[in-house]
Amino acid sequence: MSEKNKGAIEGGNHAALWSGRFKEGPDGAAVEFETSIYVDERMAQDDIKGSIAHATMLGEAGIIPKEESLQITGELQRIGEDLLSGKLKIDYSAEDIHSFIEGVLTDRLGEAGKKVHTGRSRNDQIALDERLYLRHAIPDLQRRIKTVVSVLVSIADKHKESLLSGYTHMQRAQPVSLAHHLCAWAWMLQRDWQRLEDALGRINKCPLGAGALAGSTLPLNREMVAESLGFEGVTDNSLDTVADRDYCIEFTAAFSLIMAHLSRFCEEIIIWSTEEFKFITLSEKWSTGSSIMPQKKNPDFAELIRGRTGKVYGNLIALLTMVKGLPLSYNRDMQEDKESLFDAYDTVYSCLEVFTHMIGTAQWNEAKMASSCVGGHSNATDVADYLVRKGMPFRTAHGVAAGAVRIAIEKNCNLEDLDITDFQRCSPLIEKDIFEYITPDGCMKNRKTTGGPAPEEVAKQIASLQDWINQ
């Protein structure tokens, strides 16, 4: 047993809420194994908020005397204030945050404090606490996503004409712009924000009143509690309510996608920061060196974000595995939901913060990026498109462009460096104006389809993203 836990267990003042049926208290090692307060203490204010709503309803419904209801709610507010000020410290001998707060309330109020749990189980209580916590934690995460997108959009707005090769299969494909590429990242993050928003809508029903699994024989006013806590209504089935951890899985799945996107961005940053590419120079504040090689400047923060993606994936698998064989309704396995959920949340939150600083302080090598559009015949499709505009079927034009590529390979030059006579050997439809279409700049600027890399099209994307950020 850890010394910290041993001291907490030996020095604790609060009996377990379920201890009445037992003649003997649990073994110290058993208490350490089952306790969750180290994980769920972050929900203390949410637990208090839910208990205030519940106690208020108990008084209004006449289930407990109204004066006792007022006593309870007033003292709960003071407990919350004392925790925030540091006047009251968490007692880690308590089994969980619910037991701690109820124990403090009872210590302060005596018999009246014991009435706070009337008509309630820890099963519906934790379901409420988690939903209340997520309702304020997820918007914090969404704001951080918008901050990242804002930084990306700001950089993109300065680089609408900064050429950069697009890649497929990690081979040079077609010229785009840095702005176009950064907007691609931004749209991924916008979808991540939307997924979180959708999931928030699904937790906006109040679970309190479901009890252990079958509701209550007391005349609880569930709707009153829901309204006072800002829920749109109450959950529909008491068994489902206490057995449900879909929301933990759904949010962690959304976190996993955020990390997948960050990991992909970081992979590109790592590649682009190499001497071979040198598209980006990371700030020294967001790089590290080597203990043996004095010359090194490593993209460690990008690598750490990429590495921590595995932690979040692991948390998702842990949650899915936790529920896969559980019969209805509540099982103690479900206590394990919070550690995975909170760890995934914390990891995503910190990675978004680091990514924001890392990308926001980076410098871009426009000349190096533009040079990636030269060579590799990434303008071959533009030769085919030129012929299509002349009336040639695309499949035929594709073959003609391939013939021009072969000539360029034989002459060891780029397509745009071929002589007009070389092009006309491939097709008499090709005229001197082809050179206006096959420069890297021309290839990028002529791609004016919606969502394409032409500066005016990227400007529309930037404006759309900016509108979304400002919503």
Automatic annotation (TrEMBL):
Keywords: Amino-acid biosynthesis, Arginine biosynthesis, Cytoplasm, Lyase. SUPFAM superfamilies: L-aspartase-like (SSF48557). It is an enzyme of class 4 (lyase). It is found in: Cytoplasm. Pathway: Amino-acid biosynthesis; L-arginine biosynthesis; L-arginine from L-ornithine and carbamoyl phosphate: step 3/3. One of its GO terms (cellular component) is cytosol. CDD domains: Argininosuccinate_lyase. Residues 20-314 form the Fumarate lyase N-terminal domain. GO terms for biological process: L-arginine biosynthetic process via ornithine. This is Argininosuccinate lyase. It comes from Candidatus Treponema excrementipullorum.
